[in-house]
Design a protein that fits this description.
Bound molecules: zinc ion
Mean pLDDT: 87
Radius of gyration: 26 Å
Shape: elongated
Distance between the termini: 43 Å
Oligomer: single chain
Number of strands: 2
Helix content: 55-70%
């Protein structure tokens, strides 16, 4: 018998966390085995009328969880890799249920990587974006939003006045926008060419400022309207050791996680080692 009273706080806490992790893993393993129990009708041998009843009594899992795991397993019938993650208990049924709606025999390898690397919130974002693309091809992920444009009253007045004089206000704005874009690119080039190698992951203010000028305060993934939270290096910082704004992009948290998990997969394909 353990005498917990003599344990330090740290011992109690770390043991509780470890037990919790183990408990979740074993519960996933139990759930992953249920489709086989159902398939062979083994619950009858233990005197239960259904696999649901068997699972409730033996494993303490809810009816909802049982039907979820059976549904997901049916859905993965032609996808051995995802099916393997389900039966081994390595990935939670809830997470796998999220990708079940977009999983195909063609993209199951991609999805198997993603569910192992991404937290549930990022998996949800990924699935939503795949749902918006016919064929659920991850390479084509893109979303569109349409919003009204608001300008200050004085600007609207000026544009109206110019238009009244027979001028093409679209062309005037187009030229101003092109000039602005060129200035941003020129500025990024100057900062990029003069930036020094560093070990610090702190992104200098001028770099953050120019990225904000270019992308505003939102995530730079097309169609994403979440606020940008993290700045991603499209050339891995551990190799480049530079905060070159030409190779940086502000992302929301889910898109940043997705960018990294896709990046890791590409590196593994090339046979490089993992390097955050
Ligand atoms: Zn990053
Ligand atoms: Zn985003």
């Amino acid at each position: 018998m353990e005498n917990f009273e003599q344990w330090s706080d740290e011992q109690v806490l770390s043991t509780a966390v470890r037990y919790g992790e183990e408990a979740r893993k074993w519960k996933n393993k139990f759930l992953g085995l249920l489709p086989e129990v159902e398939h062979r009708k083994l619950y009858l041998q233990k005197g239960f009328s259904s696999v649901v009843h068997f699972a409730q009594v033996v494993g303490g899992v809810s009816e909802e969880q049982v039907s979820r795991v059976l549904n997901v397993s049916r859905k993965f019938a032609t996808m051995p890799v995802l099916q393997g993650l389900l039966t081994s208990g390595e990935v939670s049924v809830n997470k796998l249920a999220r990708v079940a709606s977009v999983a195909t025999a063609e993209n199951e390898l991609f999805l198997a990587d993603q569910v192992q690397m991404l937290p549930k919130s990022a998996v949800e974002v990924l699935v939503k974006e795949m749902q918006s693309v016919p064929g659920h091809k991850p390479e084509q992920i893109q979303t569109m939003t349409q919003e009204a444009i608001y300008v200050d009253g004085d600007v609207a007045e000026q544009l109206k006045s110019l238009q009244g004089k027979g001028m093409d206000v679209s062309q005037i704005l187009r030229e101003a926008l092109t000039k602005r874009e060129q200035e941003i690119q020129e500025w990024k080039k100057q900062i990029g060419e003069s930036c020094q190698e560093t070990d610090s992951r702190y992104v200098p203010k001028e770099v953050r400022d120019i990225l904000q000028k270019e992308h505003g305060t939102k995530c730079s993934m097309p169609g994403c309207t979440r606020p940008s939270e993290e700045i991603h290096h499209t050339q891995r910082f551990s190799l480049s050791k530079r905060h070159d704004p030409r190779y940086m992009a502000p992302f929301c948290k889910p898109h940043h996680q997705i960018a990294h998990s896709i990046d890791l997969r590409v590196q593994e394909k090339k046979g490089e080692r993992r390097d955050p």
